[in-house]
Design brief:
Layout (H helix, E strand, L loop, with lengths): L1 E6 L13 E6 L18 E9 L7 E8 L2 E6 L1 H5 L7 E4 L4 E4 L1 E6 L1 H7 L3 E2 L6 H13 L7 E6 L11 E2 L2 E2 L2 H6 L5 E5 L4 E4 L1 H7 L11 E5 L5 E7 L2 H13 L3 H21 L2 E9 L1 H12 L6 E6 L1
Helix pairs in contact: 2-7, 5-6
Length: 308
């Protein structure tokens, strides 16, 4: 059983405590009982004195709830739930705070969420020049040949159009100068486009003769040379080159990187109250790792996974 707190509004009290907190409660499977108290096995946790959203139309709100193991065993008034309190029960006094069920992400990619937190965060970049600067900084502490990855840029957030550009998207020259010895791939905020530097395109075997793949497009300059911008399925040309490089790494290193991505994704979900996650595509290797985490009791988010 896990609890999350998130500020419900920015304003706080005079003591610096938010006026209202949202507590997000996730429950899963039942666990064993404890010695009886008043004829009932006592709860491990009781929340009381709050506004608890039950999602039950007949009784939409309650004042208290009790949890034993990973299952809610009682919901009702404070007096109704009090019988579940034993000597070892943890009691949280909500003081009017709101309790709601955990959120469900209905379509995302769990490992990619974690990996995005291991790469350059470009969401706040106000110009293409800032993107290039962040890549240049990363190249200074990245070994030659190692990929530099980023995510979250969006041309509509930039204060001016990059120059030179094709259809408003930058050409690769500045990015190639920023990291000449590292392949670079920067994924658009939508996930449906990427920018690549010269080294990445070289590893991907992309040149003037490379045709657009079905469902994708390689942006080109007036002479037909790829600019470094790849739309939709064309981006897979770059991602495939990155995957080939990753496959050459020692298995232990790949496993450690996957574990770190799972850890970061779990942390990000729980910090935002996401307790169930529909993964829209994972490999059997990744699913095996999810199972390993679950058996160790470390997979604290419920996953529904589509096989990719």
């Amino acid at each position: 059983m896990m609890i999350w707190t998130l500020p419900a509004k920015a304003a706080g009290s005079a003591h610096g405590v938010p006026d209202c907190l949202v507590l997000l409660l996730f429950v899963a499977w039942a666990a064993g009982s404890r010695p009886a108290v008043g004829g009932q096995p006592p709860a491990d946790l009781v929340l009381r004195g709050g506004r608890i959203v039950t999602m039950d139309e007949a009784k939409p709100e309650a004042e208290a709830l009790a949890v034993r193991g990973d299952r809610i065993v009682a919901v009702g008034t404070g007096s109704e739930v009090e019988q579940w309190i034993g000597p070892d029960t943890r009691v949280i006094r909500l003081q009017g705070q709101l309790v709601v069920p955990g959120f469900i992400d209905s379509h995302a990619h769990f490992v990619e969420l974690g990996r995005s937190m291991m790469t350059l965060d470009l969401t706040a970049a106000a110009s293409y020049e800032e993107v290039v600067r962040l890549v240049a900084e990363a190249s200074r502490h990245t070994p030659p040949g190692r990929w530099i990855e980023g995510r979250g840029w969006h041309q509509d957030k930039w204060d001016r159009a990059p120059e030179p550009n094709v259809e408003g998207y930058p050409t690769h020259e500045a990015l190639s100068r920023a990291a000449p010895d590292n392949p670079v791939v920067l994924t658009h905020a939508s996930g449906h486009m990427c920018l690549a530097n010269a080294r990445a395109m070289e590893l991907a075997g992309v040149d003037k003769q490379t045709p657009d793949p079905p469902g994708g497009r390689i942006l080109r300059d007036a002479e037909g040379w790829p600019t470094g911008a790849f739309r939709e399925t064309a981006a897979e040309l770059i991602y495939a080159a990155r995957a080939r490089d990753e496959s050459r790494r020692p298995p232990q290193q790949r496993r450690e990187e996957l574990d770190e991505a799972i850890r970061l994704a779990t942390q990000q979900c729980l910090a935002n109250g996401v307790t169930t996650f529909h993964d829209a595509g994972a490999s059997f290797q990744t699913i095996d790792r999810f199972i390993h985490w679950a058996r160790q009791g470390r997979l604290r988010v419920r996953l529904w996974v589509m096989v990719n």
